Amino acid sequence: MASVQDLKRRVRSVQNTRKITKAMELVASARLRRAQARIEAMRPYADRMMELMAGVARASVSKQRLPLLQRREPQTTAVVALTGDRGLAGPFNGQILRRTFALERRLRSEGKQVSFVAIGRKGRSTFAFRRYETVGEYVGFTDQPAYADAQAIAHRVAELYVEGEIDQAILVYNAYVSPLVQQVTEQEILPISADILETDEEERREDALRGDFIFEPEPEEILARLLPVYLETQVFRALLESAASEQGARMTAMRNASKNAGELIDSLTLQMNRARQAEITQEILEVVAGAEALS
Predict the structure, then answer these.
(1) Same domain, 215 and 277
(2) From first to last of its 295 residues, what are the pLDDT tens digits of the chain?
(3) What element of type H or E holds 219?
(4) Of 116, 120, 104, whose CA–CA distance to 245 is shortest?
(5) At 277, which CATH number?
(6) Closest among 78, 235, 84 to 151, alpha carbons compared
(7) CATH number for position 122
(8) Beta partners for 185?
(9) How far apart are CA 187 and CA 56, in angstroms?
(10) What is the distance between the terminal CA atoms of the chain, rounded to a whole angstrom?
């Protein structure tokens, strides 16, 4: 059995660890609220972007010639894996990497080539460990992404697609559901689906009532400018979803760690009390034995 002093040191060590995990839980909780606010603030912008693109697409007669809308038989797919820069977030990073490699195996079984874009230090280090080459690496911002970060990622992926180096791009990220639930999501971001430009019959009747619009410049040119912005918006939304998911996963992981530390402290305290009682009992027995020897 461990001595009382050893158990005291272990209790102090676990108590210090619990203070750290509790502080990290509070920090993650505060960051989660800010991340949720950013997601809610972006939704009106994303909705307006969709409406604007659909309105311009209705007036465009040659939108199929736009590079980001052209679909071709996929031969090479870029998998964009969105992980975090730090750990201590439960299964947040691991489930993204498992889905990424499962997707890779599925694509290769279909005879497709696969390339990777790493977002986050955890993804980058895993690809480097497996000796996978990447066509893009972006780190240092996953917990607080800016729109400029999404622009850089979207520009690189669009460049690969337009130049024919890839025929498809799939984004793998954690979608935020709640602090306890993060849903791994696969989203095809390139080519941009033509479905987003389609409108229903009611919207077409409303346009007919409002009359024709005069576009300056031409609708095709406007749409050509809007499509990259739409791609940036989709990437930025995924970055915000991932940031909120990471903070939620970290908050949950640190809460569980604090709970486990408390249970361990109780167990160690019980062992320490038993060890102290055993020492006291042994001292009493030694005193009694000494007294009997003298008598």
Answers:
(1) no
(2) 678 888 899 999 999 999 999 999 999 999 999 999 998 888 888 878 877 777 777 666 555 678 888 888 889 999 999 999 999 999 999 999 999 999 999 999 999 999 999 999 999 999 999 999 999 999 999 999 999 999 999 999 999 999 999 999 999 999 999 888 999 999 999 998 777 766 554 454 454 434 455 666 777 788 888 889 999 999 999 999 999 999 999 999 999 999 999 999 999 999 999 888 888 888 888 888 887 887 6
(3) helix 219-294
(4) 120
(5) 1.10.287.80
(6) 235
(7) 3.40.1380.10
(8) 173
(9) 24
(10) 34
For residue 250, give the amino acid letter.
R
Give the whole-angstrom CA distance, residue 202 versus residue 269. Answer: 70
Which amino acid is present at 71?
A: R
Same-domain status, 223 and 134: yes
Enumerate the β-bridge partners of residue 13: none
* 53-66 exposure pattern, b = at least 16 Cβ within 10 A, e = fewer: bebbbbbbeebeeb
What DSSP string describes 12-45?
HHHHHHHHHHHHHHHHHHHHHHHHHHHHHHHHHH
How many domains is the chain built from? 2
Q: What is the pTM of this model?
A: 0.85
